[in-house]
Amino acid sequence: MSAASLTRDLVVTHTRALKLPGLARTFEGLARQARDAHWPHEDYLQEVLSAELASRHDSVMRQRLREARFPEVKTLDTFDFAAAEGVNATQIHTLARGEWVTAPQNLILAGPIGTGKTHLAIALGVEATKQKRRVWFARAADLVRQLLEARDARELTRLQQRLFRIEVLILDELGFVHFDRVGGELLFNLLTDRYERKATVVTTNLAFAEWVTVFAGDEKLTTALLDRLAHHATVITTKGKSYRMRKRRGEG
Ligand code: ADP
Ligand code: MG
Fold this sequence. Notes:
This protein is of the alpha/beta class. It is built from 11 helices and 5 strands, in the order H-H-H-H-H-E-H-E-H-H-E-H-E-H-E-H. The longest helix has 28 residues, at 41-68.
């Protein structure tokens, strides 16, 4: 075995022991470049460390994306702003920068079916994963069902703690399914926990005045819940006809 290949094998062994997969993948190619261009040793070291950092950032992002459980990945570049009534492209691109997550602010996307609410919620969630934020997407009804099941199994505290670690919680389709009193209270508690501490996104086909129907007609609970959710919130009201329907009819 040549001295060079012995060194190579040792480097590979060390990268495994030190868990440096990005360095393992790049060190040989970069070494060739370094030799050809006569880089100082420090420059080579800088390059392999940068490659490791980039690879770590990538793998965290991919993991955050998996954990978010988006039903399908939607992005801002596939969103047609010209076809979206009530949606301001500048505002969405500002939100994509993620300061609202740090603040934290909530986001409420309200409007008729098919007007891009879920698409925007997912796309902004994807942007947040790129900033290494923990994101979780759930239909509001599914989340309430999970909370109820956890409560019955005496695992509510654990689920609540898990949810609190989520920096961007997306509750999709609030209003499609009505909750009973206990379900409504569990959702209320969740939003109270997150109030001014973690960002929440809600998409809904309902106007605020109609939310009370979702919470078994409980005015007091609905008002308190809306209060927490809307206090520091950006509200985007989408309008018009379903995007897909318009596409099908060739309305552009
Ligand atoms: P909503 O959640 O408001 O009911 P969706 O976001 O699910 O609507 O949109 C329905 C479908 O139409 C999705 O496939 C979505 O990607 C697409 N869509 C809606 N609005 C737009 C838009 N402005 N640009 C591109 N695709 C859109
Ligand atoms: Mg939707």
